[in-house]
Amino acid sequence: MKKLCFLLLLFICPVFIIQSKAQSNQTEDNNSKKVQKPVDAKEKKSIEAGIKRHQKIQTKKTRKRMKQSKKKSRRVNEPKKEFFLFRLFKK
Length: 91
Description:
Layout: H1 2-35, H2 41-57, H3 60-77, H4 84-88
């Protein structure tokens, strides 16, 4: 009986902790979206031109390495699925 209670607590407690963290993250995301200002066309065009210029200056090997690292960083930083138990008890 004690083992059953322990296992029950072990599986239920982390779910409540994760849910509270998820709610606080959502409020932070909403606040950060409001603060960001929209980028106007001139600014966007100048940023793109600067990036192109920076890449033209680099050697071919360096450009290839930059491209690979950009690809890798996208893959690493993209959002990942939550643990299946958290998704199960989410709503």
